């Protein structure tokens, strides 16, 4: 999936300012919801996974976004695609490995959080926002925000995907 070459320049050396670290995480969830609301306004009930502009995965808009295939047996859910900043934040490879269950792809500290968000989005069929704190390997605290928007493969489909955005900031002692 190729993006516009002008979209790539921001990836390398992009440092968050204090303002970004404080406000960027909330803005990611709001931007994702605004994007999805525009899709719903245009497509209505026809807004499915096909509306996600997956060819733009390398663009700045997709930097913190992800798509998870949510299995009825939640432990078998898997990351399908994700943006470059999402990969960097979670120390993931450049490309997702959809053949691996979600828990084997994510750092342990986020496994249960993502499982909870996927299960809740699948069950309630509404956007789910989660925020909280996890302890990193170096004993620093990460304050995270995640949004999970349930999306079908076709209208009224029982197949569920979770389209979302993730960000965190480190709480320095």
Question: Any descriptors?
Answer:
single chain; 173 residues; alpha+beta; 5-stranded antiparallel β-sheet; 31% helix; globular
SSE layout:
Elements: H1 18-43, E1 65-70, E2 78-82, H2 84-89, H3 102-105, H4 108-124, E3 128-135, E4 141-152, E5 160-171
Antiparallel strand pairs: 1-2, 1-5, 3-4, 4-5
Give an overview in words.
- 31% of the residues lie in helices and 25% in strands.
- The chain has a 5-stranded antiparallel β-sheet with strand order 2-1-5-4-3, with helices on both faces.
- The chain is globular.
- With 173 residues, it is α+β, with helices and mostly antiparallel strands.
- It has 4 helices and 5 strands.
- The protein has helices spanning 18-43, 84-89, 102-105, 108-124; strands spanning 65-70, 78-82, 128-135, 141-152, 160-171.
- The model is unreliable at 1-24 (pLDDT under 50).
Structural class: alpha+beta
Largest sheet: 5 strands, antiparallel
What is the oligomer described by this structure? Answer: single chain
Q: Which shape, going by the Cα principal axes?
A: globular
What is the terminal-to-terminal distance? 41 Å
State the order of secondary-structure elements, H for helix, E for strand.
HEEHHHEEE
Proportion of β residues? 15-25%
What order do the strands of the largest sheet run in, or round the barrel if closed? 2-1-5-4-3
**Rg from C-alpha positions?**
16 Å
* Average pLDDT figure: 81
Percent of residues in helices comes to 25-40%
